């Protein structure tokens, strides 16, 4: 017990002694844990509004439809099937063309009774229910089409007044609506020329009285029935048992498949966040490796002192690990809290479902996974340096001997042919190849993320309907993308500054020596900056290809998306991205590089002797 | 005095270096006048903390004086910018330090050629010059060794070769034998002897009387000021080892 107390006390004291570094460590892990928490809770959060809508509307467990009146006995048979405890319908449904002011859209028009239905009674968010001459518009469609209660519209040329706006759980909100009309439906950004004229295009959903539906039906009328089952969890099995093997009627749809359609946007956001969490997790490991390496280099003398007073290698490693485990635990708690509180903002259901997501429940698996990832990140970055420090010789640790630099002979030979700043820059980089790799990886991860964000943003802007989202949802997804990108860029910026500062500190002696031998302060600071810019250039290029390309392919593989529909960034965009990354790194590293190169020569040379 | 002043390659007038303020003021170098002629070897002796290393740093433009003037080859260097100072150090001054200050990741020859590369020489010319210098210091066969594989004396000989790389007007050596054993001290002494014979101007800061005895002139320092100056008639002529008390 006393030993554990000692380890904790030493760890806390050291963290308090180096607050800035501890804060940076915390920031790096919190970004990753927050994003991971968001991703994990988002699906549950997004599913809540559908459940609310299902409860408020007494939503069906199965929706069945047939294309002709002659097939109505099939629906009657379903209503009488074992396990079915209630139903509403059959209701007539037809395709129509809706016009409101100067806009037109195809719609599926569902005929309903003025009296409430026992199953699937759409819940009104504005106005009243259907009456003769009055149309009720599905909420997401009303929002996208910008119609309100009281607006005049025409359906197949006949005038109606919008009397209400409602939500339903029997169909996913616009534009994810399922097709229940005989003529068939198609979705997409642009109507292909070869598509049959009879097919309706990106249809919305409206309700009329049954008499009004029949009065405007220009073609065939289909019928739809909503079924309630004794056990809603049997809905998928019910559908599977009764769905015709070949294309035919009745067409059945379980509430689970409607839920899938309704929460597709949330799933997309969750995938984006999950990928963002992975990217941020990798960046956090890179950050931590640099921070921990720098801290442990600074702690060499302390390690020597602990050993000199009887600290075993195990105790030393435990103290160093305990510091980062402590930070990781705090970061996990903070990430869980922030992610938990902000998830509803990203999972807002839009207009198609009742209510907001609210604050989702924090499940034990989510909390456990986030904490485990935070600890894994900390341990992965700390373990080797901690063991190395624990095994170091007490005498050399007390002398605060610097870690010997790495020698890369071929790079030194090449650098001899370059101008002085590049000569020094290559040698600075060659001294610590692991740090260079971390710098390259950090920039490559960030640029890969930005590459994918550019592709998705362009796709969401140009083809929101093809992506299965409306403008509101596309905006939400873009906000998710933006949030992940901002965090990625911030973390990469912190990495760049810290790597430069660690490089400047690590090269104090060699920089001072170079100045003693005649290098100017400008040449030395240019070298320190160039030592970051060269890896940044490599990282930016690798981040575009293969990084960004591979990440986009991975996202497509995970989501089952069709990458061929997306427009990849043009060459000039990629060039601008690479140049921007290099410019930003140059700007970020300029100050630490300049400060690092301005230290008095004598101080740096004599520091080695003290 | 006037002859010395006229031919001085390195000259200091009223040179001061102060640290701190008020009661904590420390005068590391306190109003020193000094003239060093071309080809002369000057040893500066004194107890630890008397300001001799600070003086050397001021003379070489590694540190800025609080007052006074330093002139190298007729040009004031105490009031020029960092960039100009760096360029001056490239060509006019060579430094030798007690701690060698070799770059651990560079081989002996790469350490020696670094000065020439920084001065803008071509890689081939820098390498050729480094070879010549390593031969001069007797380390041609250790050219591709890393400093960690060399003895203390060998490291210091590499550092001396590096200091000579750009044929400087003056070599400033700060306790060059402070970290060496007796055999290595003899090696370094012999090297300085050869440099002296070749007409190289040398300023050596030391508290080792054996090194000081090899100089043309010995200056004693205390509390930042010169307290004594002796012209050694024998200079470094005669049997160096016997003079330094290192022979068997």
Protein architecture, described:
- The complex is a heterodimer of chains A (610) and B (248).
- Chain A is α+β, with helices and mostly antiparallel strands and 610 residues long.
- Chain A has three domains: 1-51 and 259-401, no CATH class; 84-229, no CATH class; 406-610, no CATH class.
- Chain A contains 20 helices and twelve strands.
- With 248 residues, chain B is α/β, with parallel strands linked by helices.
- Chain B has one domain: 3-Layer(aba) Sandwich (Rossmann fold), CATH 3.40.50.
- In chain B, helix 7 (182-197) links the parallel strand 7 and strand 8.
- The longest helix of chain B has 16 residues, at 182-197.
- The interface between A and B is medium-sized, with 31 and 34 residues.
In short:
The complex is a heterodimer of chains A (610) and B (248). In chain A, 61% of the residues lie in helices and 13% in strands. By secondary structure, chain A is α+β, with helices and mostly antiparallel strands.
Rg of chain B, alpha carbons: 18 Å
E-strand count of chain B:
10
How many runs of DSSP E, i.e. beta strands of chain A? Answer: 12
Strand count, sense and closure of the main sheet of chain B?
Answer: 6 strands, mixed
Question: Roughly what fraction of the amino acids of chain A lie in strands?
Answer: 5-15%
Q: Please count the helical segments of chain B.
A: 9
What is the tally of helical segments of chain A? Answer: 20
How helix-rich are the residues of chain A, as a percent range? 55-70%
Please state the overall shape of chain B, judged from the principal axes of the Cα atoms.
Answer: globular
Spatially, the strands of the biggest sheet of chain A line up as: 2-3-10-5-7-6
């Amino acid at each position: 017990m006393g030993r554990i107390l000692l380890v904790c006390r030493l760890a806390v004291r050291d963290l308090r002694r180096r607050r800035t570094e501890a804060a940076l460590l915390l920031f790096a892990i919190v970004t990753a844990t927050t994003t991971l928490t968001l991703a994990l809770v988002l699906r549950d959060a997004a599913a809540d509004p559908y459940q609310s809508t299902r409860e408020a509307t007494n939503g069906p467990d199965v929706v069945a439809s047939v294309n002709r009146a002659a097939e109505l006995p099939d629906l009657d048979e379903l209503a009488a099937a074992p396990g079915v405890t209630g139903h509403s319908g059959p209701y007539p449904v037809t395709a129509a063309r809706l016009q409101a002011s100067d806009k037109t859209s195809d719609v599926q028009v569902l005929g309903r009774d003025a009296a409430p239905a026992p199953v699937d009674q759409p819940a009104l968010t504005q106005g009243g229910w259907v009456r003769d001459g009055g149309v009720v518009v599905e909420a997401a469609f009303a929002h996208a089409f910008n119609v309100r209660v009281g607006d005049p519209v025409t359906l197949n040329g006949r005038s109606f007044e919008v009397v209400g706006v409602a939500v339903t759980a029997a169909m996913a909100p616009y534009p994810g609506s399922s097709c229940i009309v005989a003529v068939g439906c198609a979705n997409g950004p642009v109507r292909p020329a070869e598509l049959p004229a009879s097919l309706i295009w990106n249809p919305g959903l409206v309700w009329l009285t049954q008499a009004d539906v029949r009065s405007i039906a220009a073609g065939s009328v289909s019928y739809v029935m909503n079924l309630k089952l004794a056990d809603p969890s049997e809905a998928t099995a019910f559908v599977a048992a009764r769905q015709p093997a070949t294309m035919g009627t009745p067409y059945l749809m379980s509430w689970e498949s409607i839920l899938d359609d309704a929460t597709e946007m949330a799933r997309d956001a969750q995938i984006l966040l999950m990928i963002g969490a992975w990217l941020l997790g990798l960046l956090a490991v890179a950050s931590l490796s640099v921070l921990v390496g720098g801290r442990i280099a600074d702690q060499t003398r302390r390690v020597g002192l602990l050993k000199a007073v009887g600290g075993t290698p195990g105790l030393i490693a435990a103290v160093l690990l305990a510091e980062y485990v402590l930070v990781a635990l705090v970061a996990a708690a903070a990430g869980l809290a922030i992610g938990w509180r902000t998830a509803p903002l990203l999972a807002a259901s839009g207009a198609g479902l009742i209510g907001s997501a609210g604050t989702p429940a924090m499940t034990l698996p989510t909390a456990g996974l986030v904490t485990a990832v935070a600890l894994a990140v900390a341990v992965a970055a700390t373990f080797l340096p901690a063991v190395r420090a624990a095994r170091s010789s007490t005498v050399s640790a007390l002398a605060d001997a610097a870690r010997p630099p790495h020698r890369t002979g071929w790079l030194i030979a090449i650098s001899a042919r370059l101008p002085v700043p590049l000569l020094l820059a290559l040698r600075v980089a060659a001294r610590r190849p692991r740090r260079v790799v971390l710098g390259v990886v950090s920039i490559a991860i960030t640029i890969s993320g930005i590459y994918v964000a550019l592709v998705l943003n362009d796709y969401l802007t140009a083809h929101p309907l093809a992506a299965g989202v409306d403008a509101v949802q596309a905006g939400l997804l873009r906000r998710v993308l933006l949030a992940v990108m901002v965090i990625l860029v911030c973390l990469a910026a912190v990495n760049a500054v810290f790597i430069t500062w660690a490089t400047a500190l690590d090269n104090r002696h060699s920089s001072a020596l170079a100045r003693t031998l005649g290098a100017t302060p400008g040449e030395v600071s240019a070298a320190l900056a160039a030592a970051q810019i060269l890896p940044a250039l490599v990282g930016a290029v690798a981040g575009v290809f293969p990084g960004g390309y591979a990440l986009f392919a991975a996202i497509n593989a995970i989501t089952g998306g069709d990458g061929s529909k997306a427009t990849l960034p043009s060459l000039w965009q990629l060039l601008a991205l690479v140049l921007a990354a290099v410019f930003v790194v140059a700007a970020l590293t300029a100050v630490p590089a300049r400060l690092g190169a301005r230290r008095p020569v004598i101080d740096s040379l004599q520091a080695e002797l003290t | 005095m006037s002859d010395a002043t006229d031919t001085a390659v390195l000259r200091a007038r009223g040179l001061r270096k102060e640290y701190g303020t008020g009661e904590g003021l420390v005068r590391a170098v306190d109003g020193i006048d000094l003239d060093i002629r071309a080809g002369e070897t000057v040893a500066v002796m004194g107890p630890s903390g008397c300001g001799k290393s600070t003086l050397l740093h001021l003379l070489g433009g590694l540190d800025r004086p609080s007052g006074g003037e330093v002139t190298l080859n007729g040009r004031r260097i105490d009031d020029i910018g960092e960039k100009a100072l760096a360029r001056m150090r490239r060509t006019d001054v060579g430094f030798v330090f007690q701690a060698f200050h070799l770059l651990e990741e560079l081989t002996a020859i790469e350490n020696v050629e670094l000065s020439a590369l920084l001065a803008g020489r071509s890689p081939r010319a820098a390498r050729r010059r480094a070879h010549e210098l390593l031969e001069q210091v007797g380390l041609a066969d250790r050219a591709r060794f890393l400093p960690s594989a060399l003895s203390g004396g060998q490291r210091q000989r590499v550092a001396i070769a590096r200091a000579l790389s750009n044929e400087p007007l003056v070599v400033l050596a700060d306790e060059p034998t402070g970290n060496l054993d007796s055999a290595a001290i003899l090696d370094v002494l012999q090297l300085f002897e050869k440099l002296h014979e070749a007409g190289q101007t040398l300023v050596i800061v030391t508290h080792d009387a054996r090194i000081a005895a090899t100089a043309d002139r010995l200056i004693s320092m205390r509390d930042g000021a010169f307290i004594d100056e002796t012209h050694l008639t024998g200079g470094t002529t005669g049997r160096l080892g016997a003079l330094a008390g290192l022979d068997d």
